[in-house]
Amino acid sequence: MADNDQVTALDLPMADPLPEATRKYFDVCQDKLGMVPNVLKAYAFDIAKLDAFTAMYNDLMLAHSGLSKLEREMIAVAVSSVNKCYYCLTAHGAAVRQLSGDPALGEMMVMNWRAADLDARQGAMLHFAEKVTKASHEITESDRQALRDAGFTDRDIFDIASVAGFFNMSNRVASAIDMRPNPEYHAQAR
Fold first, then answer.
1. Exposure on the CB side of residue 144, measured as CA atoms within 13 A
2. Can you tell me the distance from the alpha carbon of 134 to that of 93, in angstroms, rounded to the nearest whole number?
3. How far apart are CA 189 and CA 116, in angstroms?
4. Which long-range contacts (CB under 8 A, 24 or more apart) does 82-86 make?
5. To which H or E segment does residue 57 belong?
6. Most exposed: 20, 25, 26, 54, by fewest CB within 10 Å?
7. Are 50 and 23 in contact (CB under 8 A)?
8. Left, alpha or beta for 47 (phi > 0: left; psi -120 to 50: alpha)?
9. What's the sign of the alpha-carbon dihedral 18, 86, 144, 152?
10. Cis link prior to 19 (omega < 30° from 0)?
């Protein structure tokens, strides 16, 4: 593997051979995204871990929710910005650019979501996600009520907390193993 194709600093070879279901999933990624995200390759040394990761990701980011796909990606970026996760800022910053159709929004979100021109709902959501990241033990009923006042249901609050929690976990793993984003992300939706 060439240096610019490095997935992680760790030498975790993909399972060989990949199970048929995993190969098919990677083929779908290749067809839809033009690449297999390095996060999937990084987990592919242990198919059970890969399956657990993708099941949780797909549930949180793609399943039915009162949060839009863009809002979930915004949470991913806001959390990743606090955690300074290079992989997720690059990958999910590209997703915000693509879903919003606004390259500047993706860049603002990566640097400081408060610089973006967001509505009150999005601001409340990101403030809460940031607090989950920095000091979840300090969240009180007034924090949850602020989300309700912005139009979120209790189910939405659970989803905001779950997406924030997932990216806090994945940011820490990505940073700890020096997971590198696919180079393709850098040019997407610009």
1. 13
2. 20
3. 17
4. 82/130, 82/133, 82/134, 83/133, 83/167, 83/168, 83/171, 83/172, 83/175, 84/175, 85/167, 85/170, 85/171, 85/174, 85/175, 86/174, 86/175, 86/180, 86/181
5. helix 47-62
6. 20
7. no
8. alpha
9. negative
10. no
Q: Which residues contact 73 (CB under 8 A, 6 or more apart)?
A: 61, 92, 95, 96, 99
Q: At the topology level of CATH, where does 69-187 sit?
A: AhpD-like (1.20.1290)
Nearest to 95, CA basis, from 58, 52, 59, 61: 61
How does pLDDT run along the chain (190 residues), one tens digit per residue? 344 468 988 888 899 999 999 999 999 999 999 999 999 999 999 999 999 999 999 999 999 999 999 999 999 999 999 999 999 999 999 999 999 999 999 999 999 999 999 999 999 999 999 999 999 999 999 999 999 999 999 999 999 999 999 999 999 999 999 999 999 998 888 8
Q: Any idea which residue has 């863009």 for tokens?
A: 70
